[in-house]
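Quick review question:
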């Protein structure tokens, strides 16, 4: 048998059971057929074999982001970027909206994303009066960096049927000033208004393609797509694959920002469940949204915020609602998960999973908690005992960590995204970015798991730092395990799918503080080179 592609002159980090490092790998079709020494793999070379000399660069398994909103990432790439430090004031945001209004037909939405009110010069959210001034003839929606808060102008509010007399929805807040709606929508209020401003199916197909092209350049070969646009997004994914616009593999969560409970109910009643599909597009877990964002801050915490003793976050659901949905989904064969950031929200989903497992025992359920950001020793013990998989976002510490210290205090901030504590207990924690909430770059994400430093250089609990191999495992094998795929991907072993990434240098020889400087030179998915620098 002659190989189609051979990589040699490693180091090739296999992430197998022994974390073996080898010199060569041979690929035939979409599978790995041999790993070992340079001489052994070159014996598989034929006249048509492509031979890639790594010249000391690392070859690793294809990277897996276990929680990323792919369609939202792509849609945001087509919208106004309001992220800091590029945009530092409401006045700058207004100027960007004015520019967009000049090229957008009247009546069509102008969308922006990524602003962080805590980093704007005015230290507040933009409001409807700001946005009306910039674009009086267009509906405007700006989504905060956390994607749990948005702000709207008068036309956007009008399209959604919202007036000063509209009551706050359960689990949501419509900010008011002297009795008037300001346009700032939090949690379920934000989710409900999104219904009138969703992209079309064709826009989402373009968005998925744009996201695919970006992610494969970062060495990502599989995404656990955490949803966003419900039924229309599921259709857009299928159509994008049909049109050969996607190379990346998708493990798709059942979740919608708009009317998620109805969306979940429909899926749990159709008779299918987690695992249906193929290696490119497969149904993942049913996902709920229990609380708010870590940076808002709107996360539901057991104790009040350090920055505001009158606030302890926002709950989107009751314990009874969570229990009922998790029980039904688990019984129907679904893997289950929930967005849960604060320790009070994590307690709620752990309670629900435990009740479901008591009622319907199942050994290899692999139920998850998305973010699982803030925990205590009791939660750590329960997560270990129940076999729950936390999906952590170490990269959040970089952009939001200084705010965590302020809003939650040192003690709680030090216990956020505690990858090392999970690993020490044998808990299979997987890594993710939650992009576009923050950067998708998995190398930077690994860097943050290893270093735990904020943008200002503040270290958030050095005892929770992980090793380079542990960080790599979080973004490869553990991600595959979290999607029942570790027998097919997540490590470099004979018989597994040829999903690989070539780095710009040797990962194991790079000082921990310089991991962030590594880039990706090549990405292979299903035995095909889909990106090459």
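Suggested answer, residue by residue:
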């Amino acid at each position: 048998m002659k190989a189609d592609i051979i990589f040699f002159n490693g180091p090739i980090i296999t992430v197998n059971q022994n974390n073996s490092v080898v010199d060569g790998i041979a690929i035939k079709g979409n599978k790995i057929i041999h790993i070992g020494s340079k001489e052994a793999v070159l014996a598989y070379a034929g006249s048509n074999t492509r031979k890639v000399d790594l010249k000391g660069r690392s070859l690793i398994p294809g990277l897996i982001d276990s929680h990323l909103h792919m369609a939202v990432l792509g849609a945001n790439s087509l919208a106004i970027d309001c992220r800091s430090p590029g945009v530092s004031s409401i006045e700058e945001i207004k100027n960007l909206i004015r520019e967009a209004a000049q090229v957008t037909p009247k009546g069509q939405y102008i969308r922006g994303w990524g602003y962080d009110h805590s980093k704007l010069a005015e230290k507040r959210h933009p409001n409807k009066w700001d946005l009306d001034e910039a674009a009086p003839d267009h509906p405007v929606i700006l989504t905060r960096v956390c994607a749990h808060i948005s702000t709207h102008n008068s036309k956007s509010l009008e399209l959604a049927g919202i007036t000063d007399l509209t009551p706050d929805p359960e689990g949501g807040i419509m900010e008011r000033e002297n009795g008037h709606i300001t346009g700032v929508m939090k949690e379920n209020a934000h989710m409900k208004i999104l219904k009138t401003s969703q992209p079309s199916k064709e826009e989402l197909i373009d968005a998925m393609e744009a996201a695919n092209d970006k992610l494969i350049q970062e060495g990502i070969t599989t995404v656990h797509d955490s949803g966003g646009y419900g039924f229309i997004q599921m259709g857009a994914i299928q159509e994008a694959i049909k049109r050969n616009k996607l190379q990346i593999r998708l493990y798709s969560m059942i979740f919608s920002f708009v009317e998620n409970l109805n969306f979940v109910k429909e899926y749990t009643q159709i008779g299918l469940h987690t695992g249906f599909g193929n290696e490119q597009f497969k149904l993942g877990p049913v996902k709920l949204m229990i609380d708010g964002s870590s940076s808002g801050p709107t996360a539901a915490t057991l104790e009040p915020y350090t920055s505001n003793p009158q606030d302890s976050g926002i709950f989107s659901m009751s314990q009874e609602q969570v229990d009922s949905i998790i029980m039904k989904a688990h019984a129907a064969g679904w893997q289950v998960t929930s967005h849960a950031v604060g320790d009070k929200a994590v307690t709620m989903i752990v309670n629900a999973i435990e009740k479901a497992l008591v009622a319907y025992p199942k050994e290899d359920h692999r139920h998850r908690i998305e973010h699982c950001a803030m925990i205590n020793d009791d939660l750590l013990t329960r997560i270990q005992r129940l076999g729950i998989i936390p999906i952590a976002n170490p990269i959040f510490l970089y952009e939001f960590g200084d705010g965590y210290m302020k809003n939650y205090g040192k003690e709680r901030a030090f216990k956020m995204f505690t990858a090392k504590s999970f690993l020490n207990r044998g808990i299979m924690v997987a890594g993710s970015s939650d992009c576009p909430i923050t950067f998708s770059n998995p190398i930077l994400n690994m860097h943050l798991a290893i270093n735990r430093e904020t943008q200002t250089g503040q270290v958030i609990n050095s005892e929770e730092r992980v090793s380079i191999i542990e960080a790599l495992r979080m973004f490869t094998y553990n991600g595959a395990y979290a999607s029942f795929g570790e027998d097919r991907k997540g490590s470099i072993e004979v018989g597994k799918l040829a999903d690989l990434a070539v780095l710009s240098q040797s990962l194991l020889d790079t000082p921990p503080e310089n991991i962030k400087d590594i880039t990706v030179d090549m990405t292979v998915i299903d035995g095909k080179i889909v990106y090459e620098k």
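Why it works: The domain at 78-196 is CATH 3.10.310.70 (Diaminopimelate Epimerase; Chain A, domain 1). The chain has a mean pLDDT of 95.
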